């Protein structure tokens, strides 16, 4: 009986147990510039990093959307329009830059929901795809005088689907005027 137990244990160690293949999502940044406090920065002006998201496999999103909340680093804020509370002069631009024709060049849905948070959504795609990339530009972001020095990390919070929680460095904060 001990021989059978040993064989059973060895079989579980070496045999694949039919685990589902997981999709991998990675976050990175095209550039990580120095960011001065007390300034307004933008990815499209290379004064703030452009976030890159790579998926090895992305599942269809026609029924269930892939959704995340992007949280800005401490001391960074979306600029709210004082004349129209709840609207923002800052912009979040997200677009697919790699993948099949159904995705390539299409925009992801983005919405700034507070001075610290933006919602990122992928929906309406009825086919899965492999090797997909999207970039996210954050434009017109205010950096306060009290922003802590060092790495400025934006955080992704998963709401549903293929946006695992993770941090990505979008800039290195230095004192006022030092990045000019």
Molecular structure report:
The structure is a single chain. This protein has one helix at residues 2-14, and strands at residues 25-29, 34-36, 39-41, 51-58, 66-71, 76-78, 91-98, 109-112, 117-122, 129-139, 141-143, 150-160, 166-174. It has 180 residues and is mainly beta. The strands form three sheets. It has a six-stranded mixed beta sheet with strand order 2-13-12-5-9-8, with no helix packed on it. The radius of gyration is 21 Å and the shape is globular. The relative contact order is 0.28. Mean pLDDT is 88; it is low at 14-21.
Topology:
Blueprint: H1 2-14, E1 25-29, E2 34-36, E3 39-41, E4 51-58, E5 66-71, E6 76-78, E7 91-98, E8 109-112, E9 117-122, E10 129-139, E11 141-143, E12 150-160, E13 166-174
Parallel strand pairs: 2-13
Antiparallel strand pairs: 1-4, 3-11, 4-10, 5-9, 5-12, 6-11, 7-10, 8-9, 12-13
